[in-house]
Each structure stands twice: as C-alpha cells, then as structure tokens.
Amino acid sequence: MQLTLKQVIELKPLTDEHLATATREELLILLRGEQALRDSLGKAFADALTRELVLKDQVFESQQKYCRLRTLIFDTRSEKSQKNSSNKKYKKKKDKKKADDTTKLPSERYPNVPIIKRVVDCIENPFCPCCGEKTKPSGMYSVSECLTVIPKKFIIIRQMRQKYACSDCFSGIVTTPAPPRIVKGSSYGDELIIDVTLNKYCDLVPVERYCRIASMGGVEGLPPNSLIETTHKLADLFEPNYEATKAETLSERVLQADETTHRMLEGDKKKKWYLWGFSGKKSCFFEYHDTRSGDVASSLLNESKCEVLVSDVYAGYRKAAREANEYRKNLGDERRIVNAYCNSHARRGFVDSAKEGDQAAQYMIDMYAECQKIENQAKGKPKEDVVSIRQALVPLFKKMKDFSELQRDQLSEKSTLGQAFGYFVNNYEGLTYFINDAETPLENNQSERLLRSAVIGRKTWSSRSGILPSPISHGTERDSLPSFGSCWFKRTSGQTALGNLS
Questions:
Q1: Does position 475 have pLDDT exceeding 60, yes or no?
Q2: Rounded to two decimals, what is the model's pTM?
C-alpha cells in the first residue's frame, strides 16, 4: 500500500504490515511528515508558552491593582509595620499604659486646663448617724474632679470713646483714638476674626457650618463671605512674618520639597491648583500655584542658598535643580544643588506586594527596617558621628541594589513590584546620597506631614461662594512643627501665604 505525506501529517494509523513492507521512499515520506509534525508542535508549544507568560503577567498585574484598591479602601493610611497582636509583652505594656491613663485625675491628665474650685454644702447641717445630734463643718472635703466645658458665647461690645472739650475756648473737642484692630471700622471684633480663622484652617470647620453654629447661639444671619474675607485681612496683617519665614527657609543648605493638588474653585472646574511646600530645620513655607511645572521650584531655588534638595523623583525637581545650577553658574556662584531622593517613596512600592505575601517585597521591607534602626542610632549625634554611623548602611544598600537588579530582570516592567525594583535601581544614587551628608535625611516624611492638614482640609476650606483659599507660609521649630491647620492664610494674586497665629 502506497503511503502519502498527507496521510502521515493527518496521523493516519499505520499497521505493522505497512511498516514491514514500506519502501525507502515511503520511509522518507514518513520521516519528513514526522519532522513537519515536530516543527508544528514546537511552534504551537512556543506560542502557548508565550501566551502563558503574558497571562501570568496580566494576572499578577491584576492582583497588584486589586491589592492597591483594597489598601486604599480598607487599610490604614499609616505606613508603619503592624505590631504582632499575639506579642504578650507588647499587649501587656499597652494595657498597662491604658490603665494608667484612666486612673489619673483630669487635672493630672490635662495639666494645662484651668481648675475652678466649687464647694458643695448642705442646705442644713445634717444629723449624726450615731447620736442624732446636728453636725458642724469639719474643714475636711471629699474631693472629686470632672472635665466640663463652658459653651461659646457671642457678645456685642459697645465701644464708647471719651470726648474731651476745652474749658477755655469751648470750641475744640478731642476724641480718644480708636484702639488698633485687624480690620479698622469692621463690625467684627478681633477675637471673632481669630476664632473664625482657627475654626476654618485648624479645626477644618467650613465657615458656613460656623455660621450655623452661631445661629444656635442666637446670632442668626452671619454672612460666610464676609467672614472669609476677614481671614484674608488677618493674613495681610502678618505678611511680614510670611516674607521673613520664606527668607529663613530659603537660606537653609538642605531643603525638603513636596507638592499636592488642590481643587480650583474659580474658573475651570476640571483644572487644579497645586500646593508647593518647602521646609528646612526650623521653618517652612507653602505657596499655591496653578501649575505643577518645575518652573515654580526653579524660581524659588534661584533665590535660595540650597545645596541639597530632598524630594520624590518628580522630574520637575530635577529640572529646577538643573536650571538653578545654570543660574548660579552665570552669576559666578560655585555652589551646586544636588537631588537627594526620599527612601519612603522607594519603600512604598514594596508595601502592597508584601501584604500579599510576596517574599521578594518582604525582603526589601525587612532591609529598610534594618536601615531605619541604624538611622535611629544617628539621631541627635554630631555631624561627624552621623556620617560614621551611616557607613554601616553602605553594605545594606549594596545588597538591596544587587537583589533589586536580579528581581527587576525577572519581573514584568508593567507590574507594580517590577516598577518598585526599577525605581530603586534607577534612583539608587539619589536614594543613598544621605549616607555621606549628615544634614540630609533618610526620607522626606517631614514635608508630607506638613501637607497632611492641607490634604484633609482642602474639601472644607472651600465655600459655595467660590472664594479661593490663599497660599501659605508657616514657621516654627522643626522638633515641634504643628499641623498645617494651625496657620493663617493670605490671598494674593497668583499665590498666598500662611503663618503661625501664635
């Protein structure tokens, strides 16, 4: 029976008789068919393997997106590692601290709150439970304490300025000068203006809600627009403080920078404003701009004495440093600005994957924990000791880099974990700059904390009236930097200022 190539390719069954009686030409046809089948199966297998790898990347990427969404919706915003609740020592210490707080008297728990003594007497002296005779005051007291509040009261001050008449000519009259006020001739007192400002920007209470609270106290019809304008007048009063704070901050050698979006309340609703923050060791200031362009940072750096700019890897900061260096070069200034990057941003890329049990991500988290321990040892030490202690970080970061390069080559560039490893490797020089510079911090968390209140309050600082909150500046000691909301705002054209009310 003659065998054809088509029969071989179609896998027609061959009997032993066919194979025993096959001629040389038939065996060649059989071998060619087998080879064609091998090639076809090899190609199909390669295509299937490629599709499997693509599907694995898609599944991995989907899992990462799911993890990020779940973290955004359900997880805590803190990046601190969760402590083990089964740790008896930690749990016992926590319970003991809680018990100590609850057993203290209010005057011990809140030492800054004033104390009002109130003596409680019987209307008539009680009778002795033993002999039945009337008792007398013994001078002893059973003392207890409770924390309470005196409700806010709105009052009207009728100011009467004395007029003086001349007793000789009886024609000249002199009126006592009016005391200085935040808004001269305003129907709102200084205390009310300050209270509105603190409620709006510190306690994040919208002005319209403040007016509703006032109506419950008997003051109905307070106009929110007018009250918002008084906060701008208060900012104008402290404008010299803002300028001095800005100048002090820009004189720092090391600057930390960050920015966040803010909804535009005037004009196009789709566009956004941006809040830029720059901070040093002792002070910080903030400005609103209608762009995220690096030109904003560049114009500020041109005025500064900065030599190290700590930030995330946003290209605008690199552009700003480059342009500021060119500006200094043209002026004959030999100082140059170096970009140092925040390690918290690098660590953040591994957090979500570590929560899903990824061992590679957890390795990086653990290594950063070791780095933080070494960094904690350097806090408060002289500059030369800080650099000496930080040298122990060099081998740790080298291990992290080698591990990241290996993992990056094995992961898809589109996956979250692959991007995290790529971020670390690509920005390694900026992430490790702090090791040899005692003034440069490990991370840029200070700038992010200063913007926290702005992020929380940006929805409440707006009014339906469409008035735009103003840019900001703020100054205080770094070790006791209060929240952003404890500051006042100033509205100007294009930018605003903020300062500490205290």
A1: no
A2: 0.68
* DSSP 8-state symbol, 102: H
Secondary structure of residue 118 in the 3-state scheme: coil
What's the half-sphere exposure (Cβ side, CA atoms, 13 Å) at 102? 6
Between strands 173-175 and 163-165, the pairing is: antiparallel
Q: How many helices (H) and strands (E) does the chain have?
A: 19, 10
Residue 394: pLDDT band with limits 50, 70, 90? very high
SS (H, E, C) 295-311: HHHHHHHHHCCCCEEEE
- 58 in Cβ contact with 327 (< 8 Å): no
Residue pair 181/194 in contact (Cβ under 8 Å)? The answer is no
Do the strands 473-475 and 283-289 form a parallel or antiparallel pair, or are they unpaired? antiparallel
- For residue 315, CA distances in Å to 18, 307, 442 come to 74, 18, 20
Collapse the DSSP code of 288 into the 3-class scheme (helix H, G, I; strand E, B; otherwise coil) and give the result.
strand
- CA 46/CA 39 separation, integer angstroms: 11
- Residue 429, SS3? helix
Q: What is the 3-state secondary structure (H, E, C) of 192-238?
A: HHHHHHHHHHHCCCCHHHHHHHHHHCCCCCCCHHHHHHHHHHHHHHC
Q: Is the pLDDT of residue 464 over 60?
A: no
Separation of alpha carbons 179 and 133, rounded Å: 63
pLDDT number for residue 252:
93
The predicted-structure confidence for 68-84, as pLDDT tens digits, reads as follows 777 777 766 666 665 54
Beta bridge partners of 258: 277
Are 293 and 317 contacting, i.e. CB atoms less than 8 angstroms apart? no
d(CA 274, CA 296): 10
Give me the sheet containing 338-341, strands edge to edge: 338-341, 308-311, 254-263, 272-279, 283-289, 473-475
Separation of alpha carbons 113 and 105, rounded Å: 12
Region 459-463 average pLDDT? 55
For the segment 94-116, the average pLDDT, to the nearest whole number, is 76
Res. 485 pLDDT band, cuts 50 70 90: very low
pLDDT, tens digit, for every residue of 142-151? 888 988 888 8
Whole-angstrom distance, CA of residue 269 vs CA of residue 386: 48
Long-range contacts (CB closer than 8 Å, 24 or more residues apart) made by 344-348:
344/79, 344/443, 344/444, 344/445, 344/448, 345/312, 345/313, 345/423, 345/443, 345/444, 346/420, 346/423, 346/424, 346/427, 346/431, 347/79, 348/79
Cβ pair 277, 259 in contact under 8 A: yes
Orientation of helix 416-426 relative to helix 24-74, angle to 10°: 80
- CA within 13 Å, CB half, 5: 9
How many CA atoms, within 13 angstroms, populate the side-chain half-sphere of residue 180?
A: 2
